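Running this now, will post back.
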Amino acid sequence: MRSDYIIVVGCGRLGSILASRLSGIGHRVVVIDRREAAFDKLTNEFSGFQIVGDASEMAVLRAAKIAQADYLFATTTEDNLNLMVAQIAGSIFNVPHVIARVYDPTRESIYRRLNVEMISPTQLSVAAFLYAVDPSLEHKPL
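Update: finished.
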């Protein structure tokens, strides 16, 4: 398996699980979060690096060696931060694969207009619930 260099912005519930699993399967992972206590959520699988700081600051991204990243995942609950970091990663540092979490589904159109690839946990949950009711139901955006 190829070992990619991955930056995860946000070490909340989503970011900590994602970073731990990616690290556990052999990827090189750096997690950035504003709060040092957030890193307590990482599991024993995690063997990467932790950076305390604001990922919207260029110095923090450079400390994470963003220019070497294969992927950047912006997973915070702050849509504006996720969008900003995703744009910086893609347009300034040319990170090949950038995906941002969109916490509020009403903001999906903004991400689309700015050509930011996104994942909406809300939309994914709706799809799973609809599928549970009727597997033939195709998920339609809210």
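Residues 3 and 27 are 5 Å apart (CA to CA). More later if anyone needs it.
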